[in-house]
């Protein structure tokens, strides 16, 4: 009786493992199909140039521009929010390389030779998107301090998400993972510090 019960349990575990692998493979194929779909938008020179420019801005150039814009619009009151955005960026920059190396997911253009990288990569690993983690973490205190900036922040996030997939550097799940991690870290820290300011 015990032997039959153990065999049944082993068979159920095997079926569950096979089902999970099947779903994982389907999700990976859908993720790669998403990259192909978005990468098609760069067939035109204007959209290709736009994807490259947005991605390069995400390498760090967007943050001084963002700080200068906020300072110009708000004045000296912006300094705590700008400093908090910088703190979030620093924290996320220490974390995402560790996470990326640990997970070790290959970039889409490494997995599928039909995809072409549109610009030089900063590291070898794909998940999560460091660009999305950092941007969402920096935008968290801005949106908390000035909720009217939410639409502009969403436009920046969507633009960066598109560019990272369009350049074949990330899968949609990398972008979503980076966004989620950036918000999950940046929002509570920002809310806590701004609440005591």
How are the elements arranged and paired?
Blueprint: H1 2-39, H2 45-74, H3 79-103, H4 108-111, H5 130-145, H6 150-166, H7 172-195
Helix pairs in contact: 2-5, 2-6, 3-5, 3-7, 5-6, 5-7, 6-7
Structural class: mainly alpha
What Rg, in angstroms, do the CA atoms define? 20 Å
How many beta strands in the DSSP annotation?
A: 0
**Stretches with pLDDT under 50, minimum 5 residues:** none
Helix and strand run: HHHHHHH
Give the terminus-to-terminus CA distance. 66 Å
Which band does the percent of strand residues land in?
under 5%
Overall geometric form: globular
Query: Given the structure, what is the number of helices?
Result: 7
How much is the average pLDDT?
88
Write a structural description.
The protein is an all-alpha fold and 197 residues long. Helix content is 78%, strand content 0%. It has seven helices and no strands. Helix 3 runs antiparallel to helix 5. The longest helix is centred in the N-terminal third of the chain and has 38 residues. The chain is globular and about 70 Å long. The mean pLDDT is 88.
């Amino acid at each position: 009786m015990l032997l039959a019960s153990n065999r049944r349990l082993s068979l159920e575990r095997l079926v569950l493992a096979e089902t999970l692998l099947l779903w994982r493979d389907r999700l990976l194929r859908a993720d790669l199909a998403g990259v192909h779909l978005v990468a098609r938008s760069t067939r035109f020179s204007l959209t290709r140039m736009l994807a490259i420019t947005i991605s390069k801005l995400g390498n760090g150039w967007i943050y001084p521009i963002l700080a200068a814009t906020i300072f110009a619009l708000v004045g000296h009151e912006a300094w705590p929010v700008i400093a908090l955005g910088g703190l979030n960026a620093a924290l996320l920059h220490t974390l995402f390389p560790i996470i990326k190396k640990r997970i070790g997911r290959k970039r889409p253009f490494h997995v599928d030779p039909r995809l072409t990288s549109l610009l030089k990569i900063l590291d070898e690993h794909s998940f999560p998107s460091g660009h999305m983690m950092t941007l969402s973490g920096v935008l968290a205190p801005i949106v908390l301090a000035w909720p009217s900036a939410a639409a502009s922040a969403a436009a920046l996030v969507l633009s960066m998400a598109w560019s990272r997939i369009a350049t074949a550097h990330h899968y949609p799940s990398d972008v979503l993972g980076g966004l989620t991690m950036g918000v999950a870290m940046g929002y509570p820290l920002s809310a806590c510090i701004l609440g005591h300011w």
